Amino acid sequence: MNNAAFDLAAARTDQERDAGVAEAGIALKQTGSTVCIDCGEPISPRRRLVASFARRCVDCQTLYEAEKKSR
User: What's the pTM value of the predicted model, to 2 decimals?
Assistant: First the structure.
């Protein structure tokens, strides 16, 4: 692999990291919910305390992230 390929890979990694940081910043500013947007069950008070921006219960969030990762 030449330097250009390494530079391109490094740039892509930086872009993905920056996008993740930006997404997390946006999530932290959002208001969460008391009810899961996927299953309609209440979001536990403990989860809302730890992640005040949460819009999904732990189980649905886990499924959502697994699905998103597999794309």
Answer: 0.60
